[in-house]
Design brief:
heterodimer, A: 264 residues, alpha+beta, Peroxisomal Thiolase, Chain A, domain 1, 23% strand, B: 375 residues, 15 strands
Chain lengths: 264, 375
């Protein structure tokens, strides 16, 4: 199985967009952690911008950057969204309301609570009527999204965007499921190389005893382990370094993913 | 289920779930309050995983998977499951027991094993002893239809040799109060396609199936012949008024099966019984199939099973093919004259070779499946 990477989007603490972060991941500049800045999405009309929850904004921002880098039309591209945490703030607000005497839940909040809220807003914003799915595999969510997106590319012979994102929960959920920071990564994947292609990817499965590739910078390694979407970091580092090689990504307990990366 | 369909029996009853005080009917599964999951998986104990285990214990399914595990090896069987709210009710209960001083959730709250969307996947994976690649799809009410597409693609790509697919959703306050806040819950049992339809009845349920390569199919097996997936790009909780996304999903499912609309003997509709869903779905069905193809919604019998609707209605279709039964619509009295499709109020017994089933969800997520019998 071989697919091509046409565009990358990235947002994380101290990783403010793929263009800015690639020097850090290539080791040319030091990593300096700073809170992830997630602005309002230009993709949405002003009324919708205000109503969109933070995880949706995060997903839209990295998706938009990946499509800009790919110079590809999002309206005609299928999407795979993957997130361990989904819509945490909305979940918290709904559960607080439901634990109160009044139980008057907001209809907007309710439709924002679904795990595929980001996918829904993306489809409205980009006018994409293509197939879209929303996945979760707890800590293995990035690997799940990558397998599904690569499989779609080879099955349909069409471009597919992978959008992985995780936003920390508010308390008290944060204590039950601590996530280190906001992190989103997006890849536009294609079946053939194009003028914008930066790398090709191959996929193999390894047994769970294999060790995942670690980040050489210890703060970046903390991010990788502390946020499911940031399990993508070794792959992004390989893109940034533009060298041929293999990275091993965490997946389910019994399985690792070996990704062969070849710069194009 | 076959017997219930034959009798046009509805499982809907006035809502007595938890502390919900809502004037609506639900399709509740009895016995879940006293049921416990297998002892070694007790951290996963919640309404959704109880329901999952109850489903796996039906019809010899778990035994069948044990045999498949011997045949393929645990690592070669994928697991693709759909759910909308997973074990969310456990979080709702935990929020009522927060520490009055610190606000902390109780120590016995298990986020990963109950609340996370993947908790269903992890629970079923451990219950069945599977070790292949897998994940949970959570795209609201299309979730467990879409997993059949995931399984077919993964098997075709050689990522697994077979796959368990399915979906489970269980009652929780979020969906009951949430749909109520949108004005979408019916005060009585839901009446799909009725002239006086007034909303959905929320149900709970689940279903599972084993997907294998078509070259293993024996006489009597059911083939997944087509999958269509699309997005509405219209609104978060209202379907496209002309049914544009629904039409695209149905057309893609037919195209991927290499079939014409006239090849379909019966359509199991999404048919939620809201004004807007049934009107837009009817436009889409009429546009693709015209007024002849018999169709019905079985949600008057089951209620809307949300993330489990896709798989349970696929199983209705498998029964329709196996027993030559096109189910009539439970609770529907008088079909809305504005709707043009050939909607079945009564059961029809006839040879059924190929069927199409629709599942549409919040966020404008649409999926249509075509299932057929092996000649």
């Amino acid at each position: 199985m071989r697919v091509f990477v046409e565009g990358v989007g990235l947002l994380g603490p101290g990783l403010q967009g793929w263009e800015a972060a690639r020097c850090v991941l290539a080791g040319e500049e030091p990593f300096r952690s700073a809170p992830t800045v997630i602005g309002p999405s230009e993709l949405l009309p002003p009324a919708e911008r205000r109503r969109t929850p933070v995880p949706v904004k995060l997903a839209l921002a990295v998706g938009q950057e990946a499509f800009q880098n790919a110079a590809r039309d999002a309206a005609s591209t299928a999407t795979v969204f993957t997130s361990s945490s989904g819509e945490g703030e909305t979940l918290h607000q709904m559960c607080e309301t439901l634990a109160s005497a009044e139980r008057e839940v907001s209809p907007t909040r309710f439709h924002n609570s679904v795990h595929n809220a980001a996918a829904g807003y993306w489809s409205i914003a980009t006018r994409s009527r293509e197939a879209s799915t929303s996945l979760c595999a707890y800590d293995a969510s990035f690997g799940a999204g990558l397998i599904e997106a690569m499989t779609q590319v080879v099955s349909w012979r069409k471009a597919v965007a992978l959008i992985a994102y995780d936003q920390p929960y508010p308390e008290p959920l944060h204590a039950a499921r601590p996530l280190l920071a906001s992190f989103g990564a997006a890849l536009v994947l294609t079946p053939e190389a194009s003028g914008r292609t930066s790398a090709s990817l191959g996929l193999e499965f390894l047994p769970g005893e294999e060790k995942a590739t670690r980040m050489s910078d210890s703060a970046l390694e903390d991010l990788r382990l502390g946020i499911p979407a940031a399990r993508a970091l070794p792959l992004l580092e390989a893109f940034a370094r533009e060298t041929e090689g293999e990275v091993v990504l965490d997946f389910l307990a019994e399985t690792r993913l070996r990704i062969a990366v070849s710069p194009c | 289920m076959l017997q219930a369909l034959r009798e046009k029996r509805s499982g809907l009853a006035p809502c007595e779930f938890d502390t919900a005080r809502l004037d609506t009917y639900v399709g509740a599964v009895s016995g879940l309050d006293d049921f416990r999951v297998r002892a070694d998986l007790h951290d996963y104990d919640c309404r959704n995983n109880r329901l999952a285990q109850l489903c796996l214990e039906q019809d010899g399914f778990a035994r069948g998977i044990a045999a498949a595990r011997d045949r393929y090896g645990a690592g070669r069987i994928g697991l693709y499951l759909g759910t909308s709210t997973s074990g969310l009710h456990s979080t709702e209960l935990a929020y009522r027991r927060r520490d009055p001083k610190t606000g902390a959730l109780p120590a016995d709250y298990h986020y990963a094993e109950t609340q996370n969307a993947y908790s269903l996947g992890k629970f079923v994976r451990r219950y069945l002893g599977l070790a292949g690649p897998g994940f949970v799809v959570s795209s609201a009410c299309s979730s467990s239809a879409k997993v059949l597409g995931n399984a077919a693609r993964m098997i075709a790509a050689g990522i697994c040799d077979a796959a368990v697919v399915g979906g489970v959703d269980s009652l929780c306050l979020m969906t009951l109060y949430g749909f109520h806040s949108l004005g979408l819950t019916a005060p009585g049992p839901c009446r799909p396609y009725d002239v006086d339809r007034d909303g959905i009845s929320i149900g709970e349920g689940g279903g599972f199936a084993l997907i294998e390569k078509a070259d293993r199919a024996e006489s009597g097996a059911i083939l997944l012949v087509g999958v269509g997936e699309s997005s509405d790009a219209y609104h978060m909780s209202t379907p496209h008024p002309e049914g544009l996304g629904a039409r695209m999903a149905m057309q893609q499912a037919l195209d991927s099966a290499g079939l014409e609309p006239s090849d379909i003997d019966y359509i199991n509709l999404h048919g939620t019984a809201t004004k807007s869903n049934d009107a837009s779905e009817d436009k889409a069905v009429f546009e693709v199939f015209g007024r002849e193809t018999p169709c019905s919604s079985t949600k008057g019998a089951t209620g809307h099973l949300l993330g489990a609707a896709g798989i349970t209605e696929a199983i209705v279709c498998i029964l329709a093919i196996g027993h030559g039964l096109m189910p009539g619509s439970a609770n529907t009295r008088s079909v809305d004259p504005a709707l043009k499709s050939n909607y079945l109020l009564e059961n029809r017994n006839a040879k059924v070779t190929r069927v199409l089933t629709n599942s549409f969800g919040f966020g404008g997520s649409n999926c249509s499946l075509v299932l057929g019998s092996v000649a």
